[in-house]
Design goal:
about 0% strand; globular; disordered N terminus
């Protein structure tokens, strides 16, 4: 395991990646939902995938605190829930009222993050981006319990076993579910977050050059085979291989952004990275409300997109400083190591 100061470092490169991912999803969904752009819808899969490896990587130090002191388990839950749930419930209620779905069965499913436990569980999927948040929330719930059951010296090997086990289990279900559900099903994607967790152990072994080359190879493959993947999505190799390709691409991009940490000596870089990172969660949750509102708004496409980005930026700034930040200040601190 890495030295203490390496484990608890803050990475501004990952702040930038988080912000790019949030706005990347928002931009892709704008053109996919309003202008039916299939390529950008396909590209949005990559930006969403970044969040999984980011979560595993960034949460690594907090998860270690559970190993150091088991009493930190419930502190971890409180911290995660205070970070994710308040804004989510506000946006869920807002978008449910827009669709006249408040307090319906679909609303209840979204409320408890169970809307993607099984295929076609919703009557109407009116908040489609939440599938990834459901995966995150169930991972937050279950993986810390796994940590309680392992010894610190066995953490790496047993996490690898768990990662491989999830992959093997998924191969048993490849023929039973379509490609979309295999990518978005709540209990099928824990391995994506585990991958980020495992990367925390090994990322220093990859150079800037290696990360650039691997990112280029995987991204080129992802784009070049777009039509083949979409046209043959029911093939066993495509359904399983597509997820692997996304995970390899996400890992290489994450390592690339870790390797641009030399830019932190430029104060402007730090400010931009911090600003977009703070907005990310709100951008991710609120952008569908703006898209639904703009679908029937007949103005020039460039002006519509400009209005969308300006509103998204403004709403996300207000959300962070007036809703998220005050709540974050109330989160409990972790306990020290057990003696």
């Amino acid at each position: 395991m890495k030295k203490e100061n390496q484990v608890y470092n803050h990475y501004y490169g990952l702040d930038l990646l988080r912000g790019i991912s949030g706005y990347g999803v928002a931009v892709c969904h704008f053109y996919a939902f309003i202008y039916k752009n299939t390529f950008l819808e396909y590209l949005s899969f990559v930006f969403v995938e970044f969040f999984f490896v980011l979560s595993g990587f960034v949460l690594f130090p907090q998860l270690l605190k559970i190993l150091e002191n088991k009493k930190n388990l419930f502190i971890f839950y409180k911290r995660r829930w205070l970070r994710t749930l308040p804004l989510y419930f506000i946006i869920l209620i807002t978008i449910s009222l827009m669709f006249n779905k408040f307090l319906t069965l679909d609303f209840i499913k979204y409320f408890f993050f169970i809307q993607d436990l099984v295929p076609n569980f919703l009557e109407e999927s009116y908040f489609p981006v939440v599938w990834s948040l459901s995966i995150e929330e169930f991972f937050y719930l279950f993986f810390p319990i796994f940590l309680i059951l392992v010894k610190k010296k066995d953490l790496l090997i047993k996490t690898i076993y768990l990662f491989i086990s999830i992959l093997l289990v998924k191969t048993l279900f490849v023929t039973h579910y379509d490609a979309s559900f295999l990518r978005t099903g709540t209990l099928f994607r824990f391995d994506a977050i585990l991958l980020g967790f495992l990367l925390r152990y090994i990322y220093l072994k990859f150079s800037f050059f290696q990360s650039v080359i691997s990112s280029f190879i995987f991204l080129s493959t992802y784009i070049f085979f777009k039509d083949f993947i979409l046209d043959n999505s029911d093939l066993f190799l495509v359904k399983f291989g597509f997820i692997i390709l996304l995970q390899l691409l996400s890992s290489s991009i994450l390592i690339f952004f870790l390797n641009i940490e030399f830019l932190i000596r430029f104060n402007l870089f730090k400010k931009i990275a911090s600003l977009v990172a703070k907005q990310t969660y709100s951008v991710y949750l609120t952008h569908m409300i703006l898209i639904y509102s703009l679908i029937g708004f007949e103005i020039n496409p460039f002006n519509k997109f400009s209005l969308y980005i300006i509103l998204l930026f403004a709403i996300s700034i207000v959300s962070y400083y007036f809703i998220e930040k005050p709540i974050l200040k109330t989160r409990p601190k972790y306990l020290q190591k057990e003696i």
